[in-house]
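Today's session is about reading a structure prediction critically. Students often jump straight to the picture, but the first step is always the sequence itself: look for stretches that repeat, for charged clusters, for runs of hydrophobic residues. Only then move on to the predicted structure, which in these notes is written as discrete structure tokens rather than atom positions. Here is the chain we will use throughout the hour.
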Amino acid sequence: MLKITNAERAVLEWLEMEKPEMLRLLEALVNTDSSSYDKQGVDAAGEVLKKYFERHKISVRVISHPIYGEAISAVVEKPKASDPRPIVLMGHRDTVFSKGESAKRPFRIEGNFAYGPGVADMKAGLVMNASVMAAFRAHGGHPAQLVALVTGDEEIASPSSRPIIEETARAACAVFNAEPGRPTGNIVTGRKGGVFMILEVFGKAAHSGVSFYDGCSAIEELALKITKLSKLTDVKTGTTVNVGLVRGGQTVNTVAPYAAGEIDLRYVKPSDRETVLKEIVSIASQCSVPGTSGVLKIKGEFLPLNPTLASRRLLEIYQAAAAKLDLKIEGEFTGGCADSGFAAAQGAPTLCGLGPVGGKAHSPEEYMKVDSLVPRAQVLALSILRLAGHGNP
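Below is the predicted structure for this chain, in token form.
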């Protein structure tokens, strides 16, 4: 670690000493169920973080919501900052796992791997962000105000958090999102956008033996629509259309009066979204089975994370910081969606996947590499310190 300044060294050494506390905080978070639709659980996970911030004398503001988990904004001030725009550290504490999952398989460490629901996606990233905030609260050196934004509904496309993220990002000079680092050790510099929809088809019920021809099968119509939807996938542009859930019918001996399919559209360019969505709307509304009708509803949406000149400069700062710690980190593109797209769409230079290295998210095998926890926090801290003097990323 040559050419590290004394100010930088103080923060780096503090983070190194903090490792046991980081693991204790991670254990407490992982062992707190926080499914996106479990407001009580998401808020309980928020309490774990709020206590940590309060213990380190970091001010906290809470944005409540009646349905989803509250958003938490923690702030480390910089009274005489040369840049009035804050540096934002983002993360979500909700998971895809249902209530009771942490009791079935609580946090554990085996060798260099930590396991448990949400350990990588993305409770380890929240621990990283909180620790970096505490390090700067203790030693200073940050070039601008630091804001740690912790949301509670990312796994369901951030219905309550999106406007909060957008408002926060509009004012930011840089946004670092602590989604898990790739299994390769790289971070994420590009993501697809996603639109999640439900296509409902309405038909007419009839006895399938006595009065078959009086009925209009919603299931048959949905099946025809699914084959058309699948043809919208375009490998060259990276656009995919997947019908991941289907349901419908009344009984086996009834012509189905209702059917529904849930659609996942992924795209790279916003123009691709508009083109394909127009086709999906057309398929939904035009029916081949007489007497049936279709209705399409958008349930949720993520925006893509597309690299910009400013985000490439931010990547260079991050990579230079990593090199100081003898780490080589590249940027990767992924088809997964995240809140970073909302931030980037506001014009804020944004990097994603900065959290500790992990993999197999959303599965019982989800893991986080323990030996990446402190180094990823240190690289983030150095990147923040190096923003000073670089002007706009």
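Discussion point for the tutorial: Residues 136 and 142 are 7 Å apart (CA to CA).
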